[in-house]
């Protein structure tokens, strides 16, 4: 079971560290943890995302499934705030907000963003919190 002091870690490729910094830190509002010549480490909503400079590994034609990552919010206001921020700061939407599994217990709101290196980020909110896992 996850302890609140433990942090999930994800490493992804990026093509340019300055673009990556601008997207995640300046536009999306994440916190910079560390930056080196070959990577940037980000506090991504409480977890660690490390963007490794690896322009030869960029997905030229990204798809939502199966490769994406993101945040499932417990509070709807937090989901709404990120959606509002993404629109106001004109982040690139891979898919606009929509409802998945409408009318079912696992019904949830979701939207997808695309970072400058074509990594796909999903943000979602389940009406029934039991469905978060």
From TrEMBL:
It comes from the Bacteria. Residues 8-123 form the Glyoxalase/fosfomycin resistance/dioxygenase domain. InterPro entries: Glyas_Bleomycin-R_OHBP_Dase (IPR029068), Glyas_Fos-R_dOase_dom (IPR004360). Gene3D superfamilies: 2,3-Dihydroxybiphenyl 1,2-Dioxygenase, domain 1. PANTHER family: PTHR39434, VOC DOMAIN-CONTAINING PROTEIN. This is Glyoxalase. It comes from Sulfurimonas aquatica.
